[in-house]
Amino acid sequence: MMKAKVLVTPKQGILDPQxxxxxxxxxxLGMSCVTEARVGKVIELTFTGENEQKTREKLDQLCQExxxxxxxxxxxxxxxxxxA
Amino acid sequence: MMKAKVLVTPKQGILDPQxxxxxxxxxxLGMSCVTEARVGKVIELTFTGENEQKTREKLDQLCQExxxxxxxxxxxxxxxxxxA
Lengths: 84, 84
Known about the structure:
Two copies of one chain form a homodimer. Chain A has 84 residues and is α+β, with helices and mostly antiparallel strands.
């Protein structure tokens, strides 16, 4: 069993109204030290299977085709290694 | 300047229809090895200020009050340290 987290965030320079709203709300609640907030998605995945290299390559492909929109979003995969 | 990522994910046992949809879509696109997918939010934050301890405590408080719903969601803070 392997686990991975895919972080999908708006690219730098892309307007992120939800992030602006979070920044304002945090400022109003006493955290005026927050200079920027950007809101994205996290997808936590659990895999079975032995072929780790193939899984990594396929996940990278699906990140581009399914999980993120490469025009406006960046993605980053955090591998958590085998847990069993 | 400090940076942190807040990961907000549905608690174990809480129904996550978006995660089920992602799992099915990945399976159809050739990754049938995905046994579970859970979809949450990531909030990327940039801070100014010197008092790191206070910032950490305050962020922890706002995670509970603003950024997550503690009834159905877990949160996890990834600190990225000072970058400048």
